[in-house]
Amino acid sequence: VVWKVKMAARSKSKDDRSEIAKSAEYISFRSSVSLNRQSVRYIRRDYTWKYYDQGPKAVTSPFVFLPPVSGTADVWFRQLLPLSAQGYRCIAVEYPFLDNVDEFCEVLTRLLDTLNLKRVHLVGASLGAFLAQVYAEHTANNKRVASLVLVNGFTDTTVFRDVPSPIMLKCLPGFALRRMILENLPKGKVEKEIADSIDFLVERLDILTRRELLSRLILNVRPAYVQPHVVAEQDMKITIIDVNDECVLSNGVKNETYKYYPDARFASLKDGGNFPYLSRSDEVNIFLRIHANVFANTASAICADQVGTLSPPTVDSLAAAPSVDDQVVSPSSPPAAAAEPTARAEPLPEPVSQPSATPLRTEAMAKPVSASYSANAEDGLTSAIGDDDL
């Protein structure tokens, strides 16, 4: 009896949660932001979405965040908290049980209708990035998607051809499905922030039920692909965020995405692993703000301070009006000279020393920092692909 009491006390005093789950930031998020549930009906079946909705409800064209295979809606908490505090409306969703991408598109449309969202800016990671492109293609006629932000995305599910077929997946137990995902994560030494992001996603993976995990894996491996010309014909703004260190996607898969969207903005991080929105959240948030500034003072504005009251454009107004890239990105921005760009972003924070690596993950590959975005003390964050793109 004494031994059992001691073991019970020891188990209560020991906190096995990941560093991110124990952080004050995550605890504050879970205590202040409620997890909502919304059921929608499609073909005599109810689908229950889980989502966080943070930010001013007056914004009808918010960021909608789609998680990866192993993630839940709260993996985006490092975007929801700071961006919503700056006036951006952010919605992070968690998928219901789905069997194919067409079903996903129909059910997501019903969720957006229920939430009275006219147009959305989709931000997806891995599987979420693929589904965001599929949804943009599916709603090409009514242009429900205003823009895309793709984080470690792909365009064709054949990149996972080594994964068992959907029929085989349905025969596997839950622990085998989890092992399939864990085997793709790096093992060995990586930087502390990257290791913490992996530990946090592994915890999210344990939360998912077998049915939820099976649904996501089926979406990830069932034959499907994106038709890039359908997405490109909508003339939407696309930002692609990739990392230069080790992640699940190969360089060939990344290059295929670049080839599909040659007019997209490319934001390249020196490192960040599979989950840069957790391990390099400050940089990702800067890219999201730059992406959102393009829509300032338009009908698709994401920030409450930038919501425009413009009527839908006509053919004559489109011919006479300047392009979106030429518009001022913030009503509070100081006037600039004619030869200088009007779009500005806040300068990058001062670099901090890298923490010591933990001996539990593989060594991250050291690669040079991409010149897609650069910073200096006077001009803040500018794009190497041209000032007009901002």
Short note summarizing the structure:
This protein is an alpha/beta fold and 390 residues long.
Structure description:
The protein has 15 helices and ten strands. The C terminus is likely disordered. Helix 4 crosses helix 14, helix 5 packs across helix 6 and helix 8 packs across helix 10. The strands form two sheets. It has an eight-stranded mixed beta sheet with strand order 1-2-4-3-5-6-7-8, with helices on both faces. The chain is an alpha/beta fold. It starts with a helix and ends in a 7-residue tail after the last strand. Helix content is 36%, strand content 15%.
Give me the strand/helix succession. Answer: HHHEEEHEHEHEHHHHHEHEHHHEE
Shape: globular
Helix and strand composition category = alpha/beta
Strand content: 5-15%
Average pLDDT value?
79
Widest sheet, order of strands:
1-2-4-3-5-6-7-8
Alpha-carbon Rg, integer? 21 Å
Summarize the main sheet.
8 strands, mixed
Oligomer: single chain
Distance, first to last CA: 68 Å
Low-confidence stretches: 309-390
- The helix count comes to 15
Q: Residue share in helices?
A: 25-40%
